[in-house]
Specification:
Layout lengths: L5 H19 L16 E7 L5 E10 L1 H5 L4 E2 L6 E2 L3 E5 L4 H12 L12 E3 L7 H13 L4 E3 L7 H10 L4 E3 L1 H4 L3
Parallel strand pairs: 6-7, 6-8
Antiparallel strand pairs: 1-2, 2-5, 3-4
Length: about 180
């Protein structure tokens, strides 16, 4: 469907937005009282670990700023200048809000793809320190955030406990060494 002028664009876009949301197949709610004064928008709300909803991602059509900034362009067929429509989008919404929701949801036990501490290599003794460093380097080349604990002043149990408290996703020790 084509929309010929700015006045018809709003109604046309509202219908296209509704069609897109219906095709998406998930439940959605029209909120006509919302304060979106630029133009129609889609807000994505996510539920946190305790059931509260937060607005995160959004996409919005803006008919006002192009007018305010006197923005125009020459159409592909060379007609008179046309007024553009600006598309605002925020994939995560507020980054701080998204991090807070993820932190609360995962309770410090981050999934591997998001974890700042993915793998801890724990050699069972000083004779395996060099091998542990090699394993760390291999994992690092594979794209994983990997550390190694070669602290001779700590017992094996203490090293493992420290890695658990630091929320490493995986702790590799002697059993893995035997696999080659």
């Amino acid at each position: 469907q084509t929309c010929s002028n700015l006045n018809s664009v709003l109604l046309c876009d509202l219908q296209q937005l509704e069609n897109s949301l219906n095709e998406f197949g998930e439940k959605w709610v029209l909120n006509p009282g919302d304060g979106a004064f630029y133009g129609p928008k889609i807000d994505i709300q996510i539920k946190d670990a305790i059931g509260r909803y937060h607005q995160c991602a959004t996409i919005q059509l803006d008919f006002q700023l192009p007018i305010r900034f006197n923005l125009t362009f020459v159409s592909h067929d060379g007609d008179d200048k046309q007024r553009p429509v600006i598309i605002h989008r925020a994939i995560l919404g507020s980054v701080e809000r998204m991090i807070a929701i993820l932190t609360e949801n995962y309770g410090g036990k981050w999934p591997l793809w998001l974890s700042p501490r993915q793998v801890m290599v724990v050699p069972v003794g000083p004779t395996l320190d060099d091998y542990a460093q090699k394993i760390r380097d291999d994992f690092h080349r594979g794209g994983l955030m990997t550390d190694v604990d070669c602290d001779a002043s700590c017992t094996l149990n203490k090293k493992i406990r420290n890695a658990q408290l630091a929320q490493y996703n995986f702790i590799l020790g002697e059993w893995w060494w035997g696999l080659g």
